[in-house]
């Protein structure tokens, strides 16, 4: 599946997803899709060392792309919309999504709520 996201130059690019977790929160698990999304949206994340999860939050207008790199073979992306229900996210059981990931997604959600003056001038 794909969702169209407008880049800074006004061109709409397809963002690959594997499914919707809750309203306004989408997940991409397939390695090739995560890699393609990173290429299409200029997201660069270094491969982590010592078992630390590398993370990158990339704001795109009223969306935020969360990229998490566990190791060379394991990556995940979340597309967070400004319409995501934070209460629903925080009530997810730990076995569905680790609290560490929920905290990062909540941080990304907060980024979607902050408007810059330039957002109103478009």
Key features of this structure:
disordered C terminus; 4 helices; two-stranded antiparallel ribbon; 5-stranded antiparallel beta sheet; 122 residues; globular; alpha+beta; 7 strands
Walk me through the structure.
The protein is of the alpha+beta class. It contains four helices and seven strands, in the order ββββαβββααα. It has one domain (2-120). The chain has helices at 31-40, 86-90, 99-113, 117-120, and strands at 2-6, 12-16, 19-22, 25-28, 54-60, 63-69, 75-81. A hairpin with a 2-residue loop joins strand 5 and strand 6 (63-69). The longest helix has 15 residues, at 99-113. The radius of gyration is 14 Å and the shape is globular. It starts with a strand and ends with a helix. The model is unreliable at 117-122 (pLDDT under 50).
């Amino acid at each position: 599946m794909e969702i169209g996201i407008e880049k800074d130059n006004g061109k709409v690019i397809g963002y690959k997803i594997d499914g919707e977790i809750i309203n306004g929160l989408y997940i991409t698990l397939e390695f090739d899709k995560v890699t393609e999304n990173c290429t299409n949206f200029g997201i660069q994340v270094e491969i982590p060392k010592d078992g630390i999860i590398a993370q990158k939050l990339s704001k795109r207008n009223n969306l935020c792309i969360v990229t998490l790199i566990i190791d060379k073979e394991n990556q995940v992306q979340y597309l967070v919309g400004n319409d995501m229900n934070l209460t629903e996210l925080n009530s997810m059981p730990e076995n569905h999504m680790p609290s560490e990931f929920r905290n990062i997604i909540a941080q990304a959600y907060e980024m979607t709520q902050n408007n810059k003056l330039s957002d109103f001038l478009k």
